[in-house]
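Notes to self after the Tuesday call (sharing in case useful).
The group wants a holo model before anyone commits to mutagenesis around the pocket. I volunteered. Ligand is iron/sulfur cluster. Logging inputs and output together so the record is complete.
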Amino acid sequence: MIPLSQPQWQTETWQQQLSGAFRSLDSLLAALQLDRAQAPYPLDCEPGFPLRVPQAFVARMEPGNWFDPLLLQVLPQARENEPSPGYSLDPLEEARSNPVPGLIHKYRGRVLLIASPACAVHCRYCFRRHFPYEDNQPARADWQRAIDYIAAREDISEVILSGGDPLALNDQRLKELVLTISEIPHVERLRVHSRLPVVLPDRLSSSCIAALSESRLQTVMVIHCNHPNEIDADLAARLGELRQAGVTLLNQTVLLTAVNNQPDTLCRLSKKLFNVGVLPYYLHVLDRVQGSAHFELSDDVARALHVQMMETLPGYLVPKLVREDPAIGYKVPL
Ligand code: SF4
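Result:
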């Protein structure tokens, strides 16, 4: 961990931390005591998908380690620019399930709202790294169109807030959105997919927790945690408050070469998640988005890792190993 005595970001609001996130390669490398000239792999110094990483996440990286599993998730590498056969800009073909701006409807009974196009962190493996967010900027009028779409379809019982990251919304807009959704009688559940609590735990402020938990809806939060080193005392405390407020906590992990492709890492992740009140839910193989091929594991390796998890852990700590297939309306078990 970085030996920072009372670092300034720890005294800042989550919004200040968000705007103070590292955006330049040199400042990130300097914070980690890494010399760009010594990089053991070629870096991308002007990535099309920009570097972005909050200091709270960097504080969990090991200084001087080019292969830190948290760093590898956010550091732009030159090989992201190599075209890879079989990889596309929109691997899940979401553009064809986008009936109104800001809304994706591909699963029966559930819709996904792009609540915010912004993210606190730019994960290099992100399947939405090329998503046309500029066409899906959810202005209030678009939210109304999305809400009208949901209200007109009584089979929709669950609304999933996604992004970008839905917790990039401020608490007032988040509260408004949750309350508006809760006024649609046939919606029973609200699911929030967010990596923000992991990379910036202070985002789970008491007003955020209230916004998420005080409606009539059953609320599920799926945090996106990929490595046990991502779980620290701050995150554990915030998740505890969220759970106390009645929110069900689940996790999904993406299998990533050099980050979490070891059985011991995955088992430790499951145990640590459970210790902080989060059930391991999905273990995803990579969505084949251009720029991410260096993270991929073969299906055989993924299955072998999953078997090792089953051999080691009680069943409730073994997430389902799945792939997303744009032609199939559910996550496909491998
Ligand atoms: S937080 Fe999620 S949506 Fe945002 S860049 Fe990372 S993987 Fe993509």
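Two things stood out.
The mean pLDDT is 93.
The CA atoms of residues 32 and 63 lie 4 Å apart.
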